[in-house]
Write a structure and sequence with these properties.
Length: 126
Amino acid sequence: MRLDAGIRKHGFRKWYERELLQSHAHLALAFLCVIGVFAAVESAMGGRSWNDRAVDGFSTLFCAAAGLWALRRYVYLLMRAEAVAQQADCPGCQTYGRMEVMRADTLGEGVQVRCRHCSHVWHIDA
């Protein structure tokens, strides 16, 4: 979800919470993929046919690829949420997270926001 759409729909604090939950769900998926890699490698070590070993090798590669994707997505979502959260303090009154989106950049990676407390306007880059 784009930054401006997420903040408009849920508010900043709920958007931030959802981003953290989503990123940690990807971390849990990466952990499960590591377990899958270990299980597939152990299964491939058994003295069975080459066909079974090929299936186990494919399972190992699939779990490794899915785990790397999930880990990369975890880091991306976490860093994005933290970068936005560090800019969520109003420069005028230092109120944290009480803002409304005025407009978004064309790519949706940055937003212009206004403080609900003092009406100060500033820009947040994702």
